[in-house]
Amino acid sequence: MLKINENFAKLPGSYLFAEIARRTAAYSAEHPEADLIKLGIGDVTQPLPPAVISAMHRASDEMGSAETFRGYGPYEGYDFLREAIVRHDYAPFGAPITKDDIFVSDGAKSDCGNIGDLFSDDTVVAVCDPVYPVYVDSNAMSGRAGDWDGKRWTNIVYLPCNEQNGFMPELPVRTPDVIYLCFPNNPTGAVATKAQLKIWVDYARRNDALILYDAAYREYITEPDIPHSIYEIEGAAECAIEFCSFSKTAGFTGTRCGYTTIPAGLERDGQKLADVWLRRQSTKFNGTAYIIQRAAEAVYTEQGEREYKALITYYMNNARVIREGLRAAGLTVYGGVNSPYVWAKTPDGVPSWDFFDRLLREANVVTTPGAGFGPEGEGFIRMTGFGDAERTKLAVSRVQSILK
Ligand SMILES: *Cc1c(COP(=O)(O)O)cnc(C)c1O
User: Fold this and answer.
1) Do both 166 and 276 map to the same domain?
2) 101 and 221 in one domain?
3) Whether residue 359 sits in one domain with residue 212
4) Is the CB of 132 under 6 A from ligand 1?
């Protein structure tokens, strides 16, 4: 008789965004007249840059002609895109990354979730708390997280990120084999300086640990001297894999393209991690669509760069409106400077879900309860700059009026 992977039964119920959707739908059903503004979910709202659309049209035409038609592409992505990635994302700061280290995919979520295929079952995994749920749940599905005790997984090493440590994890007591880091951070909006990242790179090298670095928000960095890639840190090519995505950079959430960087010299247990990843990808993945890879390539053209930067400026202006508006309403807020996420402390220590409900009912604004990202997120809510500019201003003024 078929038995289902028992690890799925261990996963706690109701995924965060499903619960938000449920409460929002229930409120809308009771109050059909309510004009809800959704600043909760981390999805972009503005259309793709025109340079990307033109490239997709051109590539579609190529697919319609026998001379230029493409079937299966290389598992690791087309060289035109891998070369553009190195030229734009790594060469400017002299990172020791070549096109052979780049693996194009359908997005960073798949790669963050699939990378665990490379590691043995007894691998000890460390994550930040609060955290992007994919890192934790994908390890739980493969049995590496232990058991869910109602708050945490028994075998995961949690790295608390809170006001006391400025949302920057401290080195753990129990040494992990794998450490997930994400900067600029979702959900807290925190960024790591070079000195802060160097501590982690040195630690990983000393302990033979591997850093899995999620740089999905690298293009949202506005302040100087904040690293856009872990490979800006000396020695990182010997201890880190990096995940990047066109989703937040250029509005590809529905178009799907990202890439993972695994330096050729990165070895563990006598094997090159890039070789093992290629073996995994060539078995379970048949490449990103040619049309989409041409679309991603266009992000790196002069026009594409100008256009995606304008999109980011639009979202970051929303983040500023939220950050300043909530602060003026008396809340303590973090993030929103090098990240589209604003991480706001609830008033008077109210639990996250209670404040979520209050904002939903009294301001008709949908947020994300911080507690949904981990126990250290309790007492916070997350708001995103990904909405419409006018609606964002309206949402902030509604929140201000209920907090008066
Ligand atoms: C949005 C996001 C991604 C990107 O996911 P895609 O699958 O590329 O759309 C990756 N990591 C984090 C932390 C994110 O918030």
Assistant:
1) yes
2) yes
3) no
4) yes
Ligand 1: distance of its center to the CA of 266 in Å? Answer: 24
Per residue of the chain (404 residues), give pLDDT as tens: 999 999 999 998 767 888 999 999 999 999 999 999 999 878 999 999 999 999 999 999 999 999 999 999 999 999 999 999 999 999 999 999 999 999 999 999 999 999 999 999 999 999 999 999 999 999 999 999 999 999 999 999 999 999 999 999 999 999 999 999 999 999 999 999 999 999 999 999 999 999 999 999 999 999 999 999 999 999 999 999 999 999 999 999 999 999 999 999 999 999 999 999 999 999 999 999 999 999 999 999 999 999 999 999 999 999 999 999 999 999 999 999 999 999 999 999 999 999 999 999 999 999 999 999 999 999 999 999 999 999 999 999 999 999 98
CA distance 159 to 172: 7
Residue 129 belongs to some domain of the structure: yes
**In the listed set 256, 271, 300, which residue is the last one of a domain according to the structure?**
300
For a pocket test of ligand 1, which of 104, 109, 259, 368 has the largest count of ligand atoms closer than 8 A to its C-beta?
Answer: 109
Cα–Cα nearest to 85, from 267, 218, 179: 218
Where is the domain boundary, 300, 331, 347?
300
Pair (143, 240) in one structural domain: yes
Can you give 27-89 as a three-state secondary structure string? Answer: HHHHCCCCCCEECCCCCCCCCCCHHHHHHHHHHHHHHCCCCCCCCCCCCCCCHHHHHHHHHHH
Domain that holds residue 276: 53-300
Count of domains for the chain? 2
Quote the tokens at residue 67: 């001379």
Task: Classify residue 1: in a domain, yes or no.
Answer: no
294 lines ligand 1 (CB under 6 A): no
Q: Whose CA is nearest to atom 2 of ligand 1?
A: 216
Tell me: do 138 and 67 sit in the same domain.
Answer: yes
Pick the atom of ligand 1 nearest to 108's CA.
8
The pTM for the full model equals 0.97
C-beta of residue 206 within 8 angstroms of C-beta of residue 238 = no
CA of residue 216 to ligand 1 center, whole Å: 6
* Residue 348 covered by a domain: yes
Residue 216 CB–ligand 1 contact under 6 Å: yes
Angle between the N-to-C axes of helices 302-328 and 50-63, in degrees from 0 to 180, rounded to the nearest 10: 140
Within a domain: residue 2? no
- Cα of 100 vs centre of ligand 1, distance in Å, is 23
Ligand 1 geometric centre to CA of 337 (Å) = 19
